[in-house]
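# nightly structure sweep
# worker-07 picked up a monomer target from the shared queue
# config: single-sequence mode, recycle default, output format = structure tokens
# input follows
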Amino acid sequence: MGYLISLIKLTNYGNINLQPSFWPWCLFCILQLRLFQCIDRRWLWQLIKPMPNLIKQPNNR
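# output follows
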């Protein structure tokens, strides 16, 4: 969103053309947002660094 706002503001200063790489970049941003919505954060953190085993079990009274 910020990129598009900047693009609109910069067009006042000169002629700016969208190159072919702009559209794959937009697709990448949309897919990345979708990935962040679908992935389970706890699962990802367990893959990166699993929780350590407890040395002493907590008291359950």
